[in-house]
Amino acid sequence: MHVLSGILLVAGAAFVLIGGIGVIRFGDFLSRTHAQAKAPTMGLILCAAGAALELRSAVAICTLVLVVILQLITVPVGTHMLGRAAHGTIEVSIDEVDELARDKARWAEEAGADAAPAGQPGDEPAS
Amino acid sequence: MNTAAFVLLAGAAFAFTYRILRGPTLPDRVVAVDGLLATIMIGVIVAAARQNESVILATVLVVAIAGFVGTSALARFIERRGG
Predict the structure, then answer these.
(1) Which end of chain B has fewer CB atoms within 10 angstroms, the N or the C?
(2) CB–CB of B57 and A60 under 8 A?
(3) DSSP for A44-93, written as a single string
């Protein structure tokens, strides 16, 4: 059991190291986000499994399950918010496809079409 | 085994710190801080397994919540500031 938990802990730490290498090596912001969001989450799951095998108490297992669930929920949300916030300042240059810019242009167009007949630019929603 | 895990985590922490110091824009730094917080969480988990001490696992929960709140606050800040 010691050996299994040690292997899981080392594998989890190796995943985090892979994420760190990705954050150093990748060239643009979205690729770095990709490396940072996925690899350490996998490492956290493996390390939590290893520590649960080592500790084997109810408190430890409950806390680790809670941490893993929380991280699985919050990491995609935070990364998505960050990528969306940074979208205006970076150029998406990998394959020339920028769907958020297209959607933003379309939303602005629809908002303009909605606001024009009403003729009251004051009561547009602030966001 | 645990020492090897700590060595790998130290390498990851150096990588994220390099990106924090070097990152050309603020979002890069925020991403690197997020990764560094994940590294700290895993380090605390490995330390708990090493010392056979399950009390310090509550720290991991606190760090996870603080990291999410910090990331989302900085994301809103970047969005409002426009870069």
Answers:
(1) C
(2) yes
(3) HHHHHHHHHHHH--HHHHHHHHHHHHHHHHHHHHHHHHHHHHHTTTS---
